[in-house]
Amino acid sequence: MSETQLDLKALAMAPTKYVDRPVPTISLSDFNLRVDQITAELVDAAENVGFFCIVDHDISRATVDRIFDQSARFFHQADHVKARVPFSPQHNAGWEKNAQIRPSTGAVDRKESYQMQFGAGMNGRWLDEDVLPGFQDEALDFMHQVQCVSDKLMVCFARGLGFEDDYFIKAHDVGRPESQTVCRLLHYFETPRLPNPTGEVFHRAGAHADWDFLTLLFQKAGQSGLEICPGREVSTSFGYGDAWTKVEPDSERNAVVCNVGDLLMSWSDDRFKSTFHRVKAPCEPDDYYGERYSIAFFNQPCKDAKIQGPQKKYPLVTGEEFTRNAMGRNFKALQEKLAREEERRP
Ligand SMILES: O=C(O)CCC(=O)C(=O)O
Ligand SMILES: [Fe+2]
């Protein structure tokens, strides 16, 4: 074994460093009356952490429970059934299994996911009504409810940056054919406890930043693993630090975890932080190795939205260009990671 391999192995086996960082919980109650206060809290969280939890958001626990039930119904279908609605990179919609490789790990995430959109991108990508009766209606109803909450957050971020109240809402209008917003159902598989016979680590969601405007993440109580690692300076950097913080949303209060994505970071001239996060690959005794469900709602800009911050730090791009550039950077970083690993092979 070479010296570098030994170093890497030692690093992989070292216990994870954790630090406590506050992840604020922000109430959206009496939104119209309290909008200035809520804006101040959201801006502070976006500037200093990039992650926050929202409560009193008007999506009921029953609604969240029902969409998780629908998600389980979907994922319990046989693979050959789910394969009727395969993931299409061009449409950013559909089902994939053990297929996503993150530049941070160079290995597949051990999970399956199903990405849904509001409009034409979903043509042919819903399972038939006789396979999953009621699924499509319930999923779309949930997505519209999450969009309503997103709209409130967008009003606050627009105010915080000095734009008109509806500036971001218009740029993310899910009623338009140009909408790119995605709701992603996620299902992580139970993984063998370490040490396992091969020593293999099963990645869940390797460290990454989201490239959307704002992500709203729904989790199930008792299925932990989400961790953040702030300290990123600009929206184009792939560097990340080393001390992680566990995000434990208050399930009693039906909290939804939100995070600023690269798009909002860039649109705010890097004032609001898009933060590295991961669903930890379970590898230490206290980690959660069980099956895990989550739902991520990615607010994406309409293809023709014009994106530029108030200080014009970055050149103006359209929503379509921003997404294409982000995917291109991700692809390049992945190729570089895989090439480095190839070089290291004895
Ligand atoms: O499943 C989770 O809790 C997080 C997923 C995530 O970060 C993502 O898909 O971007
Ligand atoms: Fe993410």
From TrEMBL:
GO terms for biological process: small molecule biosynthetic process. The keyword Iron applies. Keywords: Iron, Metal-binding, Oxidoreductase. It holds the Pfam family 2OG-FeII_Oxy. The keyword Metal-binding applies. InterPro entries: DIOX_N, IPNS-like_FE2OG_OXY, IPNS-like_sf, Iron_ascorbate_oxido_reductase, Oxoglu/Fe-dep_dioxygenase_dom. GO terms for molecular function: metal ion binding; oxidoreductase activity. Gene3D superfamilies: B-lactam Antibiotic, Isopenicillin N Synthase, Chain. PROSITE patterns: FE2OG_OXY. Residues 179-301 form the Fe2OG dioxygenase domain. Belongs to the iron/ascorbate-dependent oxidoreductase family. This is Clavaminate synthase-like protein. It comes from Lentithecium fluviatile CBS 122367. The lineage of its organism: Eukaryota, Fungi, Dikarya, Ascomycota, Pezizomycotina.
